[in-house]
Amino acid sequence: MRIDGLERLRGLLRDEGGLMATLVSPVPEEAAAGIDGCNEPRTSPAVLVAGGPRVSGRAEEYELLVEAIYEGYLLHYGVPRVVRVGEADLGLLAGDRLYAIGLARLVALGDTIAVAELADTITLSALAQGAGDHALAEAVWAAGARAVGWGTSEIHRRAKDLVCAGAPEGIEAMRTSAAAIPASP
């Protein structure tokens, strides 16, 4: 039986011990909900990454590390699925720790392309959240996950430039990037 990325993240944090282990929640009912806690299930960016040819043979490791990074993002901007905190400041610190866990695992794999892509995803989604554009942040995550799993493209690079510039067409460019599968990884 395959254990999903969220369960492996729970196990990783419990095994790590310390404060993070005490913040791991039991499997919540809202885990299937989207960023905003609505009842419409959304595919985790980690699952999108794990389905791509760039990560073939290491899909479970990529799924785990992207789940860690995405959980960190949710602690900053949304509804986390694995970690529960009672204070906003602790949530930010826990989110930063999860970013570090995921990125460190990615660096250990030697995938500098994915490190850069996920760093861009974290930055651009933070810009979108700062502007109050949750739909754009979601599109950035979908496109970033597609780029990590399938490889980047000129379409994706252009979309990132548009979002960085604050262009109104950035969201559609990100959605197009998320839907496009490059010809070669």
Compact description:
The chain contains nine helices and no strands. It has 185 residues and is mostly helical.
Structure overview:
The chain has 9 helices and no strands. 65% of the residues lie in helices and 0% in strands. It has helices at 5-16, 18-22, 45-50, 59-77, 88-109, 112-130, 134-150, 154-164, 170-179. It has 185 residues and is mainly alpha-helical. It has one domain (5-179). The radius of gyration is 16 Å and the shape is globular. The longest helix has 22 residues, at 88-109.
Number of H- or I-type helical stretches: 9
Tell me about the largest β-sheet: none
Mean pLDDT: 89
Distance between the termini: 29 Å
Strand content: under 5%
Total individual domains: 1
The structure class reads: mainly alpha
Helix content: 55-70%
Oligomer: single chain
Work out the radius of gyration.
16 Å
Order of helices and strands: HHHHHHHHH
Q: Could you list the spans in which at least 5 consecutive residues all have pLDDT below 50?
A: 29-41
Overall shape: it is globular
Annotation, overall tally of beta strands: 0
What tags apply to this protein structure?
185 residues, 0% strand
Write the layout of secondary structure elements.
Layout: H1 5-16, H2 18-22, H3 45-50, H4 59-77, H5 88-109, H6 112-130, H7 134-150, H8 154-164, H9 170-179
